[in-house]
């Protein structure tokens, strides 16, 4: 089986959200989130490249955070772009996703 996942556990396995988080991107993200929840002791997501994020991706992130809590895994969204923060806050999901919004973010 050919896998794009790193085989060395010391490698960074942060999931990087795409610039455009649409329905098509959500399909790939779903698979990667399931693998992270099953194989890793944490789910770390880099949101630095996000220019827009759709409902499907937001739903997956909410579900992944709930799954992480259920399995006692760490869940962290790192380097959120201003567009990501704005969308998450606008949807009232900042607290649900554990995203801090303050003076550094809109």
UniProtKB/TrEMBL annotation:
SUPFAM superfamilies: SpoIIaa-like. Residues 27-89 form the MlaB-like STAS domain. InterPro entries: MlaB-like_STAS, STAS_dom_sf. This is STAS domain-containing protein.
């Amino acid at each position: 089986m050919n896998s794009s996942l790193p085989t060395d556990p010391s490698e960074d396995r942060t999931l990087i959200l795409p610039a455009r988080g649409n329905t098509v991107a959500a399909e790939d993200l779903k698979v990667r989130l399931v693998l992270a929840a099953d194989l890793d002791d944490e789910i770390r997501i880099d949101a630095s490249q996000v220019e827009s994020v759709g409902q499907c991706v937001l739903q997956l992130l909410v579900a992944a955070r709930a799954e992480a809590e259920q399995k006692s895994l760490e869940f962290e969204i790192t380097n959120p772009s201003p567009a990501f923060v704005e969308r998450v806050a606008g949807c009232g999901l900042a607290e649900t996703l554990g995203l801090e919004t303050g003076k550094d973010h809109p």
